[in-house]
Every structure is written in structure tokens, then in C-alpha cells.
From TrEMBL:
Heme c 2 binds at residues 110, 113-114, 156. Binds 2 heme c groups covalently per subunit. InterPro entries: Cyt_c-like_dom, Cyt_c-like_dom_sf, Cytochrome_c4-like, Cytochrome_c_Oxidase_Subunit. It holds the Pfam family Cytochrom_C. This is Cytochrome C. It comes from Bordetella genomosp. 9.
Amino acid sequence: MRARVAACTACHGEQGRAGPDGYYPRLAGKPRDYLFHQLQNFRDGRRQYAPMTHLLRNLPDDYLRDIAAYFADQHVAYAAPVPADVGAAMLERGRLLTTAGDKGRGVPACAACHGASLGGAAPAIPGLLGLPRDYLLAQIGSWRSGTRRAAEPDCMAHVARQMNPEDIAAVAAWLSSQPVPAAYQPEPPGSIALPVSCGSQE
């Protein structure tokens, strides 16, 4: 299996621990179905990144499930977070949006779906800590613009469209600067009542 995923680890790091450039995200320990859905999304055009599409274009679902299972079973230490070079007001805005949301504008808290510890939930909700700031900015921005999509109803696209660029920058800065707890892992299946309909969880 290590040979099969060599093309993945060339960018995402040994065991999927994350690439060194601050963009390629960690795969290790992510929920299995989340990883499987992302592989499908790249293969089928719902996510746009030409090298990933090229690698996955002709791979069947069973092959993708094996790749997802391999990385879901990898448990390696997280790197220390990079301090965000932003002001205290932006970090506080990011913290509030992440933990409480903004009900007046229809923005649910990140924690409402990704769990109080932000570790995600099995089988298909990813954790949010330990991700580079640039990656978070790019992904939330892609949902907002429609260049990243998921199964309908696309809950993340809906949430991202309620956020303005300043919200996205604040959330990315706060999340990327938080240390990852020692016991960081997805919550059990069914433990989170989602505040919005989400096709990727059905």
C-alpha cells in the first residue's frame, strides 16, 4: 500500500502528515469517508486541481476507498502551529466565528458541525486544526466562489457564501494558529446534530 500511495505522499508528506510548503494539507487521521469523498470530488470535477484530477481520473471507487482507509489509519504527531501575523482584533473575530458563529448573518459556528474540539466527526466531517492558513483561505474562498463543490445540498458552499473576505481571513488566521490537543480525534458517528442540511453526510 505504501507503494500505491507514493504519488500522494510526494506532495502530502510521509504518511500524509502534510507537505512542507504550507499548502498541501494533512491527510493522516482524517475520517475515512471524508477522504474518500474528496478523492471522488477531484476525480469527478467537483474540486479543481489538475494534478489531482490527472492522478485519479481512471481510478475506481474501490481503489479510492483503499487509499482513504490507508491515510485514515495513519496517526502521526502534528507540527507546532505557525503564529498568525495579524492583530488581536482579527484573531478574536476568528475565534468568535469559529466557536459561536454569527446568527444575525446566518453563519453557523464552525464548531457546530466540526465539533467542540474542532476534531471533526466520523465518518465524514474533517477536523480543522493543524491546517495551514493559506490552505484554509483557499478552500473557504473556493467554496464561496463555487470552484470547490460537494454533494448537494452543499453545506460548506452555503456557509461560505454567508461569509465576507474579512470573516474568512479571520477564521483562517485563528484556526491555523491554534495548537492541536494531544487527544485530537474525530467524534463518534451521530454525535453532532448538524445545523444545516449537508449532502456529503447523507
